[in-house]
Amino acid sequence: MSQADLSPDRFRELLRESEPSFEEVLACVFDLQPHEVRTYETLLDQPASTVEELATELDRDRSNVNRSLSTLREKDLADRTRRLLDSGGHVYQYRATDIEDTRELMHETLDAWAAYVHDRIDTFGNGN
Q1: Is the dihedral of CA 71, 82, 23, 76 positive or negative?
Q2: How far apart are CA 124 and CA 116, in angstroms?
Q3: How far are the Cα atoms of 46, 56, 62 from residue 5, in angstroms, in the given order?
Q4: Domain annotation covers residue 9
Q5: Which of 6-15, 20-29, 75-84 bottoms out in mean pLDDT, i.e. has the lowest?
Q6: Nearest-CA neighbor of 40 among 1, 75, 2?
Q7: For residues 94 and 44, what is the distance between their CA atoms, to the nearest angstrom?
Q8: Cβ neighbour number for residue 91 with a 10 Å cutoff
Q9: Residue range 92-103: average pLDDT?
Q10: Buried b (16+ CB within 10 A) or exposed e, 25-50
């Protein structure tokens, strides 16, 4: 994860919420768009989904679903496996990172971001 993953503007918005939802925190910590959060949640409910199945379920075109899945995979929130088809060829099936691992990843990302901010604070007044 890069330090840019946590959006300062979204973080400020989150702090204003009295009881932010899991979806709001997930979006903030990983700088996800609403459609990416929906894709993650759909994968939780329907593991081993293909892009085509997700596109149908989410009512989005396959290219948009592919982009959402790429983002989720880059942020370690989903993975894929290749399944061989009886008719030949293969298809990729996607799974969301389970909630427990996602919570741990959220903690790690926030801790890394906080350490980065603390380091930046320590350099203030030192010519930076």
Answers
A1: negative
A2: 13
A3: 26, 29, 25
A4: no
A5: 6-15
A6: 75
A7: 10
A8: 14
A9: 96
A10: bbbbbbbbeeebbbbbebbeeeeebb
Is 23 among the domain residues? no
CA angle 102, 106, 109 (to 5 degrees): 130
CA atoms lying within 13 Å on the CB side of residue 6: 21
SS3 49: strand
For residue 95, the enclosing domain spans 35-121
| CATH at residue 105 | 1.10.10.10
Domain count, the chain: 1
In whole angstroms, give the CA distance from residue 50 to residue 42: 11
Q: The pTM is what?
A: 0.83
pLDDT at 38 over 90: yes
In a domain, 52, yes or no: yes
Give the Cα separation of 96 and 105 in Å (integer). Answer: 13
Vertex 73 angle, CA 90 and 69, to 5°: 65
